[in-house]
């Protein structure tokens, strides 16, 4: 369903005057979050416990005289999101004509809850920004108790946290530490008394799979072991530490890293050849095996493509009729191999 959410919460629209801009830099980046229901209607705060909302993530700059014309990488980190708000189904929502699959993209929710998009494969700029908020992503959030959706993770180390990079003569980094990013957190409140919470873990007993265990609240595969202790949350036989989709029992592998599991992906290795036509669907460097020996044509030194280097018949006789072969043999040629498309130059020459 197509949604156009009206912004309900505009977060952190603060001009950071103390930021010393690098030469050629542009306005500071502002992250705006807004919540809506499935119909695109702005969510009224507070919400009932267990409500699912769609959180739109938009970007803009705080200075209309200094647009950001070359944003080349985007990273959001949801680690600081309140644990009682369950995130799922993150997806990029870029302007028409901007295809996220054309860029290097990593999406992993809810673990480790870090997502990024970068231009490592094509071009320099993913999008340009001005003072009008531009929606770039949406994530679904199930709100079990009051808390915040946070895309910043302000306490992250050098490899985590919210981060952006823009072009110019030298790439310019935008992050919380440099004080050139603001916004990025959204408070969601649960209405009224949500019922008893026996273990006081913030999850009402009515929706807590383990109402007497403060260390557990969810049991994805219903095996009686909470997700925190369970080493295979979705019960698909693949341990969480090696499962690309630890909460999806029908997916565990994402060979090409495009965020779509191999079970649903029609081109697992992203080589442009659909799996149904690809002799090596998990190898992006191979797709054909002409001689059926289990070695792809690119690596096989004995494939027809690499063997057919001798003189070839012309005029359509390569692999042609038996009559054509007999005629050529009558002229003193030998070594004709049907299906090999090769003719030896003289009698006795090895084909």
Q: What is the third-level CATH name, the topology of the domain at 29-188?
A: Immunoglobulin-like
Give the helix proportion (percent range). under 10%
Can you tell me the CATH class of the domain at 29-188? Answer: Mainly Beta
Kindly report how far apart the N and C termini lie: 63 Å
Report the CATH architecture of the domain at 29-188: Sandwich
Shape: flat
Number of helices: 2
Gyration radius over CA: 29 Å
| Mean pLDDT figure | 79
| Poorly predicted spans | 4-25, 308-351
Number of strands: 13
Q: What class do helices, strands and sheet pairing give? A: mainly beta
Task: Give the amount of beta strand, in percent.
Answer: 15-25%
Q: Would you summarize the structure shown here?
A:
The protein is mainly beta. It is built from 2 helices and 13 strands, in the order E-E-E-E-E-E-E-E-E-E-E-E-E-H-H.
Which terms would index this structure?
351 residues, mainly beta, Immunoglobulin-like, six-stranded antiparallel beta sheet, 4% helix, 23% strand
Task: Note down, in words, how this protein is organized.
By secondary structure, this protein is mainly β. Among the domains are: 29-188, Sandwich (Immunoglobulin-like), CATH 2.60.40; 270-304, no CATH class; 308-351, no CATH class. Helices cover 4% and strands 23% of the residues. The chain has helices spanning 304-307, 322-330; strands spanning 29-36, 51-61, 68-77, 85-92, 104-108, 114-118, 127-129, 134-143, 147-150, 163-166, 172-175, 181-183, 185-188. The strands form 3 sheets. Strands 3, 5, 6, 7, 10 and 11 form a 6-stranded antiparallel beta sheet that branches. A hairpin with a 5-residue loop joins strand 10 (163-166) and strand 11. It is flat and about 75 Å long. It starts with 28 loop residues before the first strand and ends in a 21-residue tail after the last helix.
């Amino acid at each position: 369903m197509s949604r156009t959410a009206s912004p309900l919460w505009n977060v952190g629209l603060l001009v950071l005057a103390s930021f010393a801009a690098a030469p050629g830099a542009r306005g500071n980046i502002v992250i705006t979050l807004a919540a809506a229901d499935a119909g695109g209607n702005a969510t009224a705060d507070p919400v009932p416990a267990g409500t699912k909302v769609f959180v739109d993530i938009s970007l803009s700059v705080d200075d209309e005289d200094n647009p950001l014309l070359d944003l080349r990488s985007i990273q959001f980190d949801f680690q600081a999101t309140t644990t009682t708000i369950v995130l799922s189904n993150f997806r990029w929502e870029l302007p028409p004509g901007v295809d996220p699959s054309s860029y290097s993209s990593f999406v992993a929710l809810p673990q480790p809850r870090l997502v990024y998009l970068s231009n490592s494969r094509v071009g320099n700029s993913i999008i340009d920004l001005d003072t009008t908020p531009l929606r770039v992503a949406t994530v679904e959030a199930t709100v079990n108790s009051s808390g915040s959706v946070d895309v910043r993770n302000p306490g992250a180390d050098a490899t985590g946290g919210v981060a952006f990079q823009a072009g110019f003569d030298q790439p310019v980094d935008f992050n919380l530490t440099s004080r050139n990013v603001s916004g990025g957190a959204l408070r969601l409140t649960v209405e009224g008394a949500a019922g008893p919470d026996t273990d006081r873990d913030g999850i009402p007993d009515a929706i807590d799979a383990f109402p007497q265990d403060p260390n557990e609240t969810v049991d994805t595969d219903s095996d009686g072991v909470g997700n925190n202790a369970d080493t295979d949350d979705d019960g698909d036989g693949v341990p969480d530490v090696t499962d690309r989709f630890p909460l999806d029992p029908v997916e565990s592998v994402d060979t090409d890293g495009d965020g779509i599991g191999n079970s649903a992906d029609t081109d697992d290795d992203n080589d442009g050849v659909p799996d149904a036509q690809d002799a090596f669907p998990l190898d992006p460097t191979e797709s054909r095996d002409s001689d059926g020996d289990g070695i792809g044509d690119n690596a096989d030194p004995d494939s027809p493509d690499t063997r057919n280097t001798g003189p070839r018949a012309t005029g359509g006789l390569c692999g042609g009729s038996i009559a054509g072969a007999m005629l050529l043999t009558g002229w003193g040629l030998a070594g004709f191999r049907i299906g090999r498309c090769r003719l030896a130059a003289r009698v006795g020459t090895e084909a």
